[in-house]
């Protein structure tokens, strides 16, 4: 792999996965969508930035709120649209109704519940981590972010798009063999503070596999909404599994 391709792919990944100011063009996007290792590598950067609030000498509630603000500033909320659409799709009955719910611009009860559950999950996980040793809190936050991005890479490498769109931009150029390199890139995050960080990273691909299987059965394939939902659900799952692993072991 040429250095220019890697750098360009990372630029494209930062532009796609975050709100960080980066000079990225069409060529970088093309490199990114064919370079699944960029997902977890960008996850390290995002994770390190959103973990900064845990260094604050502040009450747990303030630290948790600051973490949410950091996510909003660094990542934004575009992937929450995937969570909302997934919530409406899950609430709908029958494959055709589920596919229609994904495309419907109206916000249903399923969307509201799904977003609320994810938001509450982030708050509670941040509160729990704010009481943990600093090294544990920071490494679990980074691991959860790397795992979430590994989950997105898993969707791209294992999924099949149900129609042309954002999902097909990845699934048509990636395959299962290409998942090996992103998985290896996530290893440092996974082994940082065992077993907490291992649990946090593994949550990503586990969530991805479940959503890919569900999307294949219910929607006829993955879409951009499945990518976005994977990112958000995997982050929450990773944070909580990390907390549980740290608490129990």
From TrEMBL:
Membrane topology classification: Multi-pass membrane protein
Cofactor(s) annotated in UniProt: Mg(2+)
An example Gene Ontology CC term for this record: plasma membrane
Metabolic or biological pathway: Cofactor biosynthesis; adenosylcobalamin biosynthesis; adenosylcobalamin from cob(II)yrinate a,c-diamide: step 7/7
Magnesium among keywords: yes
Keyword annotations: Cell membrane, Cobalamin biosynthesis, Magnesium, Membrane, Transferase, Transmembrane, Transmembrane helix
Cross-referenced HAMAP family: CobS
Protein name: Adenosylcobinamide-GDP ribazoletransferase
Organism of provenance: Natronomonas pharaonis (strain ATCC 35678 / DSM 2160 / CIP 103997 / JCM 8858 / NBRC 14720 / NCIMB 2260 / Gabara)
Highest classification ranks of the organism: Archaea, Methanobacteriati, Methanobacteriota, Stenosarchaea group, Halobacteria
Gene designation: cobS
